Amino acid sequence: MMRALFLAFAIVWTIASSGASFARDGLATTLRAVLYEEDPGNPKGNRAEGSVTWRVEPTADAFAPSGDVTIRGDVEVPSRDLRTRIFIRRNFDPALSATHTVQIEIEPGFAAGRIKQIMGLMLKASEQAKGAPVAALSVRIDDTHFLIGLSATPQDASNNSRLIRSRSWIDIPILYGTQRRAILAIEKTSEVLPLFETVFRQ
Questions:
Q1: Dihedrals phi, psi of 93, to nearest 5 degrees
Q2: Could you report the per-residue pLDDT of 159-185, keeping only the tens digit for each?
C-alpha cells in the first residue's frame, strides 16, 4: 500500500516538475563528485571524477508553505557523459509517509546506458569511508527519473537527519540495465551545511 501511494505521488511529481526552475538567490557552491563503476576487466573498478554544484531554490509543491526551499545539486561527470539533477525537499503531502523526498533526474546520453534502479542513499564521512544507509523507499519512474522517500518513523527520521547533517559525502548506489553496479559519490562539506540544516532541521 505504501509503495503504491509513493508511486502515485512520484508520477504526479514528474508531471508537476517538468517546467524550468530557478535558484532563489543565485548563490552556488561547487564541490567534488566521483562515479565508481564495476568493470569485469578491472577488479578495482573504474573511477571517474566530476563535480556537484549545490544551491537552494523555492519549493515547487502545492502543499509546501510559502518560503520553503529545496536543495538542488547539479552533478556532472564529463568523461562518462553523466549529467544529473538532485532535488532534496521536505514532504508536506499528508498522503505520503515520508519526512523528505529526494528526486533524481538523469539526462539522456549517459555513457553507461539505461539505469534500472537507484538503490537508495548512503552517507559517509569521507570519499573512501564505508557509507551508512538512510531508511528510505526508492521508486523508479522511468529510465531517467527516480524518487526516494525518507522514512517518517520517528527513530528512522531522527537517524536520517543525523546522518545527512553530519556526514560529508552522499553515496547513491546505482544498478545499470546491464546488471552492473555503480556508486555516484557527491561531496557536501561544511560549506553547504547551512542548506541541509535548513531543510533537515527538527
A1: -80, 115
A2: 999 999 999 999 999 999 999 999 999
The model carries a pTM of 0.87
**Cβ-contact 115, 84 below 8 angstroms:** no
CA atoms within 13 A on the CB side of 93: 19
- Do the Cβ atoms of 165 and 193 come closer than 8 Å? yes
Parallel, antiparallel, or unpaired: how do β-strands 145-151 and 136-140 relate?
Answer: antiparallel
As beta bridge partners, residue 124 has 169
Q: How many CB atoms lie within 10 A of CB 191?
A: 12
Burial (0-12, 13-18, 19+ Cβ within 10 Å), 65: exposed
Nearest to 184 by CA among 110, 91, 100, 109: 110
Q: What is the pLDDT of residues 127-164, one digit of tens each?
A: 999 999 999 999 999 989 999 999 999 999 999 999 99
